[in-house]
Amino acid sequence: MDLLNALVTLMNFVIIPATAYGAQLALGALGVTLIYGILRFSNFAHGDTMAFGTMIVILCTWGLQAAGVSLGPLPTALLALPLGIALTGLLVIGTDRVVYRFYRRQKAKPVIYVIASLGVMFIMNGIVRFIIGVDDQRFADGERFIISARTFREMTGLEEGLAFRTSQGLTIVIAIIAVMLLFWFLNRTRTGKSMRAFSDNEDLALLSGINPERVVMITWLIVAALATTAGVLYGLDKSFKPFTYFQLLLPIFASAIVGGLGNPVGAILGGFLIAFSEVGVTYAFRKVVEYLGPEGWSPEGLMQLLSTDYKFAVSFAILLIVLLFKPTGIMKGKSV
Amino acid sequence: MNPGEIAVIVGPNGAGKSTAMKAVFGMLNVRRGSVRLDGEDITDLSPQARVARGMGFVPQTNNIFASMTVEENLEMGAFIRRDDIRATMEQVYTLFPILRDKRRQPAGELSGGQRQQVAVGRALMTRPKVLMLDEPTAGVSPIVMDELFDRIIEVSRTGIPILMVEQNARQALEIADKGYVLVQGRNAHTGTGKELLADPDVRRSFLGG
Fold first, then answer.
1. Is the terminal CB of chain A with fewer CB neighbours within 10 Å at N or C?
2. Domain containing A56 — which CATH number?
3. Residues B160-188, mean pLDDT to the nearest whole number
């Protein structure tokens, strides 16, 4: 029985990675939920919006690296983030002008928007692959670890190491800042309140003199910022590959729906719920159990519920359960 | 309409009360006749533009932001104003003291009567030149209805003229300075509330004798 080592193993392989992944999903799901709350459709192009923003940041990072600019221990990508957000903002507002505004004027049904967003998704998908290619790109630089496994072992004298990567720490810190800014904006500023009013009761918002086109534009800008940030953090933490970002759509939608579509608090909760389930279900708990059991004993199997290849099944399963038993999600969003 | 007056449109179901209201507010195109505010012709303006010109409108349903607090509802009512709204908010709280106590609560959690007060308060935040209420007592209990009518009288005492569509014809006509009885889309009777209540024709046709 060795509680400390078991706990460290659990921290190292489950809790820290899942927290970072959860923060990335939460940022992604916030974007989806904002679009759903205000433009009233499920934006399938969100994963590829993230990919586009990340691509811009990567290209800009390479440029900065070539010019010899760096942020010391922090990744250079942070310096490129504002430009990525700005260009992604232009892209989504442009898309809105060209595509979604047409359907708004037609007062189209939500399902038409969804299909239109599917088309937008394929186009963005193509643009990203055309520019940066389909391969894996690494763009993380700076200090790799806040605490590396070896330093931790030397520090504590424990058998197990605990690694805390810069990208993970950065993800958590930036996600907290982004969420705080977002909630401050939505709850304290006039424009933010008008966005909530528009989401709550469109007709009454119009009667109150709230300009819908302005609300929509600001929503897209915020979504661009959230998507680019989420994409860059995910890319720093793992790596950037257009197809992976497209696949992220599923856990992100699962997070938003589980939390309650249109509800920002729900999106954050949903993100962490999905991340912890995904990591928890696909992690092999053998080592943790080994430490918890009697000395010298070890379980026969890997103690892994599902192979990591099936991690998307976890999102799907949770999504189905929630839709069957609580269609409006944990935090009572709008029903789908 | 003159300051402080209450005008009530009553009539049986399908008489065109709500249609009349929508026409005045610009949600329908008026084929004949015109809508004037302060002598100014506003027939061609959109509902939003009418709000900016000084029309306050309380729709019959979905007339509050349910997920937002009472105070935020009032702030949103004053969205088109760029000046200091605290004095107006204070007036609304004085008119509806219960709203002051519940100002941090989501408006959707309030009772039916309180929600109607939020709705009226929201419309008052633009300091309208005329306040239009579409069946303010729809779906509330008789006791609450009496209280709401009292509040409406108080609002009109602050000098704002009120145009109201009502199903509860008798009570509404009792507080009305001017009454219009619509029958099948036509204005069948006009008069002060008291006159209409006394009119045998009106009584027979839908006040129930």
1. N
2. 1.10.3470
3. 84
Q: Residue B17 pLDDT more than 70?
A: yes
Put simply, the answer to whether A201 touches B77 (Cβ < 8 Å) is no
Largest alpha-carbon pair distance within chain B? 51
Quick check: A140 and A77 in contact, CB under 8 A?
yes
Is B123 or B48 the better-scoring residue by pLDDT? Answer: B123
Q: Is A90 helix (H, G, I), strand (E, B) or coil?
A: helix
- Per-residue pLDDT, A115: 96
What tokens appear for B111 in the block?
A: 């009772």
- pLDDT-derived band at B207 (thresholds 50, 70, 90) equals low
The token pair at A6 is 């078991």
A204 and B65 in contact by Cβ < 8 A? yes
Residues of B with CB under 8 A from a CB of A: 47-48, 51-52, 57, 59, 62-68, 72, 75-77, 79-80, 122
**Domain with A195 in it:** 3-325
Closest partner residue to A209 among B64, B67, B79, by Cβ? B79
Q: Mean per-residue pLDDT for B75-86?
A: 91
Query: Is the CB of residue A201 less than 8 Å away from at least one CB of chain B?
Result: yes
ipTM value for the complex: 0.87
Domains of chain B: 6-63+111-207 (3.40.50.300)
- How many structural domains are present in chain A? 1
What is each CA distance from B44 to A105, A206, B199, in whole angstroms? 20, 17, 36
Q: Is A190 on the interface with B (CB under 8 A)?
A: yes
Question: Does residue A18 lie in a domain region?
Answer: yes
Structure-token pair, residue A300: 């026969």
> Count of CB atoms within 10 A of residue A29's CB?
33
User: Could you give the 3-state DSSP secondary structure of residue A108?
Assistant: coil
Flag whether A50 is in a domain. Answer: yes
**Backbone torsion region of residue B184, taken as left when φ is above 0, otherwise alpha when ψ lies between -120 and 50, otherwise beta:** left
- Which percentage of chain A shows pLDDT scores above 90? 74
Q: Which of B65, B75, B80 sits opposite A201 (nearest CB)?
A: B65
What ranges in chain B are assigned the alpha helix state H?
17-25, 47-53, 70-77, 86-95, 97-101, 112-124, 142-157, 169-175, 193-198, 200-202
Is the CB of residue A267 less than 8 Å from the CB of residue A26? yes
Band (A43; pLDDT cuts 50, 70, 90) = very high
Tell if the CB–CB gap between B79 and A206 is shorter than 8 Å: no
Give the span between the Cα atoms of A126 and A48, in whole angstroms: 9
**Residue A335 lies inside a defined structural domain of this protein:** no
Residue A333 in domain: no
Residue A100 to residue A260: CA distance in whole angstroms = 24
